[in-house]
């Protein structure tokens, strides 16, 4: 459990403290996720709701791995890509999806820690493996839909640039562009809100434990 706590601290710093990820934090995050996945396979780790959320958090770094490996292959072997704009947008959207999934799951872990600290008995029926699994799936589905919308918008932008007078989907282009812009704004403000909420939760937990 100490290793899992250290992993959560690493992830909080990576996604909720640092304004943007860098090579060092990304590399440490990938190593931590790989180690965490191995740990969670052990029979010594009980199957609890927190473990389910942490497992989903670690698996979210698969998106980062795909992006990093793809860029390394292109750079190392000088691979020519037929649709550079599409691939570049896809890799960036995968990184964005990883950040959003991780922030939401870390907030779920923080909320669960809040319930355990202040409402251990009353919240027991909420802190179940079934609910944690359902929450993780809903987060993955929502962020996947978001990533799909961003990718569609990038694809339509590239198509309209290459053939602006031939695009048969002008209305679709404007709709996706407006929806993507709105969603990016909402994601930005949600990210700020999650940072504030997480700080408040751990502030309350810290002083509660200190008083005890």
TrEMBL record:
Oxidoreductase recorded as keyword: no
Keywords, sorted A to Z: G-protein coupled receptor, Glycoprotein, Membrane, Receptor, Transducer, Transmembrane, Transmembrane helix
Bilayer topology term: Multi-pass membrane protein
Residue stretches spanning the membrane: 12-40, 97-119, 131-151, 171-203
Main location as per UniProt: membrane
Subcellular location: Membrane
Identification of the protein by name: C-X-C chemokine receptor type 3
Gene: CXCR3
């Amino acid at each position: 459990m100490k290793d899992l706590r250290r992993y959560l601290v690493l992830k909080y710093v990576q996604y909720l403290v640092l304004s943007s990820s860098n090579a060092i934090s990304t590399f440490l995050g990938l190593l931590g996720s790989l180690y965490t996945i191995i740990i969670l396979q052990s029979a010594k780790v009980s199957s609890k709701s927190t473990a389910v959320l942490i497992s989903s958090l670690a698996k979210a770094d698969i998106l980062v791995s795909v992006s990093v490996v793809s860029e390394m292959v292109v750079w190392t072997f000088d691979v020519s890509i037929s649709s550079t704009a599409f691939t570049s947008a896809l890799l960036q959207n995968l990184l964005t999806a990883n950040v959003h999934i991780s922030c939401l799951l870390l907030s779920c872990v923080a909320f669960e820690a809040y319930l355990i600290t202040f409402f251990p008995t009353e919240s027991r029926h909420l802190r179940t493996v079934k609910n944690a699994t359902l929450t993780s799936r809903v987060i993955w589905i929502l962020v996947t839909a978001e990533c799909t919308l961003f990718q569609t918008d990038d694809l339509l932008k590239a198509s309209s640039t290459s053939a602006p007078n031939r695009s048969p989907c002008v209305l679709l282009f404007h709709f996706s562009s407006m929806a993507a812009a709105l969603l990016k704004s909402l994601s930005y403000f949600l990210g700020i809100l999650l940072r504030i909420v997480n700080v408040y939760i751990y502030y309350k937990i810290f002083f509660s434990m200190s008083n005890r």
